[in-house]
Amino acid sequence: MAGLSKGDIAAWMAPFADNAVYLWNGGDSLAGKAAINTYWTKRRGEVVDSLTFKKEIFLPIKVNNPQSVEASGIWVLAWYETTAKYKTTGKK
């Protein structure tokens, strides 16, 4: 998250798998490393002035037998206390 905070999207994206999925809590998502990279490069460069993360919580899980719409595999759920300042409004 340090790379994303600094605006170094390449460093932040380096460990992502090509088939990574980025999910927001509202149900929206981005599928694929390229789509995530494109979104955050534009968003961090044009919209977000500063971005900080603290109080990280990570929960790795392995889905062996999907019960519904989830896919088999290893997933990491992450939560952060996030503070963002936006360029156009200056609001946090």
Write up what this structure looks like.
The structure is a single chain. This protein has 92 residues and is an alpha+beta fold. It has a single domain, classed as Nuclear Transport Factor 2, Chain: A (Roll). 26% of the residues lie in helices and 39% in strands. The protein contains 3 helices and 4 strands, in the order ααββαββ. It has helices spanning 2-6, 9-13, 33-46, and strands spanning 21-23, 29-31, 48-63, 73-86. The strands form 2 sheets. The protein has a two-stranded antiparallel ribbon with strand order 1-2. A two-stranded antiparallel sheet has the order 3-4. The radius of gyration is 15 Å and the shape is globular. The two termini are 18 Å apart.
Summarize the structure in short:
With 92 residues, the chain is of the alpha+beta class.
First and last CA, distance: 18 Å
Low-pLDDT windows of residues: none
Instruction: Examine the secondary-structure arrangement and name the CATH architecture.
Output: Roll
Secondary-structure class: alpha+beta
The dominant shape is globular
Topology:
Blueprint lengths: L1 H5 L2 H5 L7 E3 L5 E3 L1 H14 L1 E16 L9 E14 L6
Antiparallel strand pairs: 1-2, 3-4
What keywords describe this structure?
Nuclear Transport Factor 2, Chain: A; two-stranded antiparallel ribbon; 3 helices; Nuclear transport factor 2 family protein; NTF2-like_dom_sf
